[in-house]
Design brief:
5-stranded antiparallel β-sheet, 330 residues, 24 strands
């Protein structure tokens, strides 16, 4: 017998490490089949401070994978600060939905019902401290400290991304190691964009065929006439030519989003019907829109997100026949 909680978060919670623990609790959990992260943003996850210091940060320009990150930071102590050491850090979070289950047994040890639910779990896959600028370990009440900073962005990423069932987020954090007490920190969310040049260079598992204009596959070819990698929110023009396509009731071209997130599923994000005769004889052309706000193609921190153009023929009483190619998105 299987049983799932009917209300999100009843009896279950999710969590993320500091400084991304602002929402720790029942909002980060839900019943079987739910996706608690779909309605959560990275901004909501970040706790901006803990302790007697507040701060502000201003970046000189938006941050991108592989570039330098420069800006200015300003700190204000509300109370006395005395720490053993202090550093500016660049911290990266991976937060995943995870499916859980628990057997409930009677006094004889027999399983009476099984509870299934979804909760989120997070870890910092990067927490790099920097020696510059030197952060003061002691601050008096009301004291203000300001400094410029220059730190490297992660050379290969991953970029900030909301995959629906997983989140990758970055923050610039200043943390004080306080003896016999919890650490103080101030943190600032860092939107880190994918660098299109890295995709073009084929860094990691991205690039390659996802950036080729024409890809031959399965006795046919799929061409992307638009510039690659394709920006999110834009229209891409796709042309497919499949002379050996089987006969069927119809054909279509789809844009799929695939990830290896633990609770993820493949999703069709755009689709358009095409004439099967044109597909077989001379090629069929469609325009597909990449939804605004779509996460970029990437692999990193153990996560992968890919976009696939798929050409399908609907065959009666049989599975669809298909050919496909990757598509680079940033």
């Amino acid at each position: 017998m299987s049983f799932s909680l009917g209300m999100p978060g009843i009896g279950h919670t999710g969590s993320a490490p500091s400084p991304f623990d602002a929402l720790d609790g029942p909002r980060l959990a839900g019943p079987e089949g739910s996706h608690p992260l779909h309605l959560v943003t990275a901004e909501e996850l970040l706790r901006p401070s803990d302790g007697p210091v507040t701060g502000q940060i201003a970046l000189d320009q938006p941050a991108r994978v592989g570039d330098g990150i420069t800006g200015k930071v300003r700190l204000v102590a509300n109370k006395t600060v005395g720490a053993r050491q202090a550093h500016l850090r660049l911290v990266g979070l991976r937060l995943d939905e995870v499916r859980r289950s628990e057997d409930h047994r009677n006094s004889k040890g027999e399983v009476e019902w099984t509870e299934n639910w979804v909760e989120t779990q997070g870890h910092l896959f990067s927490a790099d401290p920097f020696l510059e600028p030197p952060i003061p370990v002691n601050l008096a009440p009301g004291e203000t400290w300001e400094s410029a900073f220059a730190i490297p962005a992660p050379p290969l990423g991953p970029p900030s991304a909301h995959l629906g069932e997983s989140i990758v987020a970055w923050a610039i954090e200043i943390r004080w190691d306080v003896a016999m007490s919890s650490d103080h920190f101030v943190a600032f969310l860092l939107p880190l964009a994918q660098h299109p040049d890295l995709l073009r260079a084929g860094v990691g598992k991205q690039g390659g065929a996802s950036l080729m204009a024409d890809v031959s596959v399965g006795g046919g070819s799929i061409s992307v006439k638009s510039e690659l990698p394709a920006p999110a929110g834009q229209v891409v023009t796709v042309q497919a030519n499949w002379p050996s396509a089987p006969s069927g009731q119809g054909a279509r071209i789809e844009l799929h989003r695939r990830s290896n997130a633990p609770n993820g599923t493949e999703e069709i994000i755009a689709t358009s019907p095409v004439d099967l005769g044109q597909l077989k004889s001379g090629g069929a052309e469609v325009q597909l829109t990449i939804p605004q706000g779509s996460a970029p193609s990437f692999d990193g921190a153990g996560l992968e997100l890919d976009y696939i153009v798929r050409v399908l023929v609907d065959i009666r009483f049989r599975p669809d026949a298909a050919i496909e190619r990757p598509l680079g998105v940033f």
